Automatic annotation (TrEMBL):
Origin superkingdom: Bacteria
Annotated region described as Disordered, given as residue ranges: 195-218
Protein name: OmpA-like domain-containing protein
Transmembrane stretches, start-end: 15-39
UniProt keyword Transmembrane present: yes
Domain OmpA-like, first and last residues per copy: 79-205
InterPro entries: Bact_OuterMem_StrucFunc, OmpA-like, OmpA-like_sf
GO CC terms in record: membrane
Organism placement in taxonomy: Bacteria, Pseudomonadati, Pseudomonadota, Betaproteobacteria, Burkholderiales
Length: 218
C-alpha cells in the first residue's frame, strides 16, 4: 500500500509537467494564429487601398481624356500617365522661347477644358519644360544652357495660358533641361521628341514637392 502511494506521488509531477507543456504549446499556437490573422488582415487592407488607388487614377485618366478629347483626337497633344505632352516644334523654333502662332492657338484651346477639370478636382497645373541633350546654340547667347531654355519655354507657356484665361493661382512652371528624356538622344528624330513641354494636374498641397527641380513662377 505504501509502495502504491509512493508511486502515485512520484508520477504526479510528471503529469503536471506534461499539462504545463501542453498549455504552453496551446498558448504559442494561439499567438501564432493571431499573428497570422493580423498579417492577413493587414495584407487585405493594403490590397484594398491599392485597388481603390488604381480606381481613382483610372477615373482621373478617363476624366482628363474626356476633357481633352478634341485636341487628343487631332494628335496635337499626347496624354501619358496623366501628363499632357506638346511637341516643342509645335510651340517654338529651335533654341527659341518665342511662341509660334499655331502653338498659341493650341494653348488657347486647352484653357477652357483644363480650367474646368482643375476646378472640379481642386488641383493645379504644373507646366514643365524639357530639351534635348545638345548644347544651346545661338548667336546672341540668349540662353546660358538647356536649363535656362527649358525654364523660359515653361514660363512662356504658363504666361500664355494665363493671358488666355487660366487663373494664375492654378498653375506653376518648372524646368528640367535635358533631364528625363522620353527616348535616348541618339538621332535628330529622337531629340525632337525630347524637346517638349508637359502639363500635369497635381494636388494643390503637393505642388511644391511634385518636382525635384526649383519651381519657376510666372
Amino acid at each position: 500500500m505504501l509502495e502504491l502511494e509512493a508511486e502515485s506521488e512520484s508520477t504526479t509531477p510528471t503529469w503536471i509537467s506534461f499539462a504545463d507543456l501542453m498549455t504552453g504549446l496551446l498558448g504559442a499556437f494561439v499567438l501564432l494564429l493571431v499573428g497570422v490573422m493580423a498579417a492577413q488582415l493587414d495584407m487585405a487592407s493594403k490590397l484594398e487601398d491599392e485597388v481603390q488607388k488604381r480606381q481613382v487614377e483610372e477615373q482621373k485618366r478617363l476624366s482628363l481624356e474626356q476633357a481633352l478629347a478634341i485636341p487628343l483626337a487631332s494628335g496635337r497633344i499626347t496624354l501619358n500617365n496623366g501628363r499632357i505632352g506638346i511637341s516643342g516644334k509645335l510651340l517654338f523654333e529651335l533654341n527659341s522661347d518665342k511662341l509660334e502662332p499655331e502653338g498659341r492657338q493650341l494653348l488657347k484651346s486647352l484653357v477652357a477644358p483644363l480650367r474646368s477639370y482643375l476646378e472640379s478636382r481642386d488641383e493645379m497645373l504644373m507646366v514643365s519644360g524639357f530639351t534635348d541633350d545638345k548644347a544651346v546654340s545661338n548667336r546672341n547667347r540668349q540662353f546660358e544652357d538647356n536649363w535656362e531654355l527649358s525654364a523660359q519655354r515653361a514660363l512662356t507657356v504658363t504666361r500664355t495660358l494665363i493671358e488666355e484665361g487660366m487663373p494664375s493661382s492654378a498653375l506653376f512652371a518648372a524646368a528640367f533641361g535635358q533631364e528625363q528624356p522620353l527616348v535616348a538622344n541618339t538621332s535628330d528624330k529622337a531629340r525632337a521628341q525630347n524637346r517638349r513641354v508637359e502639363m500635369a494636374p497635381v494636388p494643390k498641397a503637393a505642388n511644391a514637392a511634385s518636382t525635384q527641380q526649383p519651381t519657376v513662377k510666372p
